[in-house]
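From the methods appendix. Each design record in this collection lists the tokenized structure first, followed by the designed amino acid sequence. Records were kept in a plain field format so they could be parsed without special tools. The example shown here is representative of the layout used throughout.

RECORD:
FOLD TOKENS (497 positions):
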């Protein structure tokens, strides 16, 4: 074991930040503004940005899921613009749903949808909607019942069921109704139609977040790599290829963190504060001394859905105009397709080619996750052809990136488990602050992940902010309202009307 050097004996906080994703880097960035040095440790040997990294293959760049930059938090917006003073583009958005060989505009536009559905499906949609209004399911405990009661069975089966089941890998009858309520709140078929039909062009109620978003010229990784560069310039250490082994504490105080490098060497970093964006359960399990048995049992209860991207390089300049397409078709495994050139033209080094990210929702170690990369690249070509988006002969090359723990699962036990861990941490070890997405086991996008980190950094500086109060769910909405940006997180939620 090597000993890292203690940086202060004068009461200056010694802060070790766990994870170099948006949350970890933001914590460090905020402290750097106040002149407090940090050490960031990241288990990946090369990738900066966590789930918000940009991967690269022979010069073609792609995200782990397309990452839009949008927020209603001014401080977060300011940080993005401080980090990327140039190269932060405003991009137009087009996304559609593929269903039964047709492309429906997303968010759904009733006229477009009715035209594409045809008479028979339209009659069934209206009939089943009327039926649901007159005879709603009395029991509303699962996702299927909740959505069908509001939209009718037909719309549910067209635009909710398949995609949701692909994302979560379980039947909608096993997903809780509260999950649906949380993700699709404040929306009914009636209001969706009214908004789509009666909102005027240019109306502040249907503005920029729907039609455009910000995006770094070379993908989200550019934001976080630039942030890393700023931190290093300001004298911070960003240690790559260091996995957290142990978080040491004594008498309610943090004393240090041990990390293991890729060659198995263990290094001890003294610390008075830890800001941690590593998965909540893992952080608790890595404590020395260990927390009580009920806390450890809670740590073992958290589950995740994992994710893989098959990134294909294809011949062809302009395959389709969308940024991304939701695939609501049960005939193929893939759930969503990103066309990265439409996010930013600089994501491809050769304009005569296209780079697509085919997204598969999986469980680590099982099914497609365990397939060899060449098989997955082949599958990607076959499925693209099946959807009529490209010929598999046009696929020139491809690669696969697997991302574990992409989605924290909200099942029947997660909330109680999180509450147990949070209460114990708050009462017993306040200088270990859990931030970010998996750090809090929350569906945070970058902005809320960053906000938890800003709070944690300010707490190190003496403020008393509750990092767990940053609430993402309360702000998920479908449109902007009177110039007040509201959020759409359809990156993960089922497509909704
Ligand atoms: C498919 C998909 C699409 C998305 N789209 C958007 C979008 O459009 N807009 C948006 O704003 N957000 C989007 N998000 C959410 C966004 O990716 C996350 O909010 C953000 O990356 C979370 O940041 P974080 O730092 O909390 O966690 P992460 O990005 O997960 O970073 C955590 C870091 O900790 C490291 N780590 C983990 N364990 C250890 C360990 N033991 N030791 C050391 N390091 C460790 C990891 O390697 C990682 O680098 C999307 C997410 C997904 C899955």
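DESIGN:
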């Amino acid at each position: 074991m090597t000993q890292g050097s203690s940086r202060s004996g004068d009461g200056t906080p010694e802060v070790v930040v766990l994870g170099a994703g948006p949350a970890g880097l933001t914590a460090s960035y905020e402290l750097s503004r106040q002149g407090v040095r940090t050490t960031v440790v990241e288990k990946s040997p090369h990738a900066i940005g966590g789930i918000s990294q940009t991967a690269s293959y022979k010069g073609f760049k792609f995200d782990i899921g397309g990452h839009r930059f949008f927020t209603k938090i001014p401080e977060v917006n300011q940080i993005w613009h401080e980090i990327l003073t140039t190269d932060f583009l405003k991009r137009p958005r087009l996304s559609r749903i593929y269903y039964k060989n047709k492309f429906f505009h997303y968010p759904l536009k009733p006229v477009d949808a009715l035209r594409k559905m045809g008479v028979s499906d339209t009659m069934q949609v209206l009939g089943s909607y009327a039926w649901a209004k007159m005879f709603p399911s009395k029991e509303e405990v699962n996702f299927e019942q909740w959505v069908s009661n509001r939209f009718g069975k037909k719309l549910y089966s067209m635009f909710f069921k398949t995609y949701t089941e692909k994302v979560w890998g379980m039947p909608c009858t096993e997903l809780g109704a509260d999950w649906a309520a949380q993700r699709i709140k404040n929306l009914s078929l009636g209001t969706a139609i009214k908004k789509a039909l009666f909102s005027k062009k240019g109306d502040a109620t249907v503005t920029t977040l729907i039609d455009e978003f910000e995006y770094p010229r070379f993908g989200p990784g550019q934001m976080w790599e630039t942030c890393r560069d700023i931190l290093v310039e300001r004298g911070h250490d960003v240690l790559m290829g260091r996995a957290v082994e142990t978080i040491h504490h004594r008498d309610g105080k943090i004393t240090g963190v041990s990390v293991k490098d890729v060659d198995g060497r263990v290094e001890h970093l003294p610390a008075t504060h830890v800001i941690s964006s590593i998965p909540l359960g893992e952080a608790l399990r890595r404590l020395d001394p260990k927390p009580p048995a009920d806390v450890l049992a809670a740590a073992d209860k958290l589950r995740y859905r994992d994710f893989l991207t098959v990134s294909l390089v294809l011949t062809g300049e302009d395959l389709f105009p969308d940024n991304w397409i939701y695939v609501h078709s049960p005939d193929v495994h893939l759930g969503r397709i990103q066309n990265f050139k439409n996010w930013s033209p600089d994501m491809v080094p050769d304009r005569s080619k296209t780079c697509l990210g085919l997204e598969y929702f999986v469980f680590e170690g099982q099914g497609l996750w365990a397939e060899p990369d060449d098989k997955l690249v082949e599958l990607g070509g076959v499925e693209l052809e099946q959807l009529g988006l490209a010929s598999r002969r046009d696929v020139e090359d491809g690669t696969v990136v697997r991302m574990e723990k992409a989605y924290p699962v909200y099942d029947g036990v997660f909330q109680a488990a999180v509450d147990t861990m949070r209460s114990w941490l708050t009462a017993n070890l306040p200088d270990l602050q859990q931030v970010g997405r998996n750090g809090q086991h929350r569906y945070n996008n970058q902005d809320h992940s960053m906000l938890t980190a800003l709070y944690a950094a300010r707490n190190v500086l003496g403020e008393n902010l509750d990092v767990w109060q940053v609430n993402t769910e309360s702000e998920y909405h479908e449109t902007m309202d009177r110039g007040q940006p509201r959020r759409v997180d359809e990156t993960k939620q089922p497509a909704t009307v």
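APPENDIX NOTE: Residues 30 and 382 are 47 Å apart (CA to CA).
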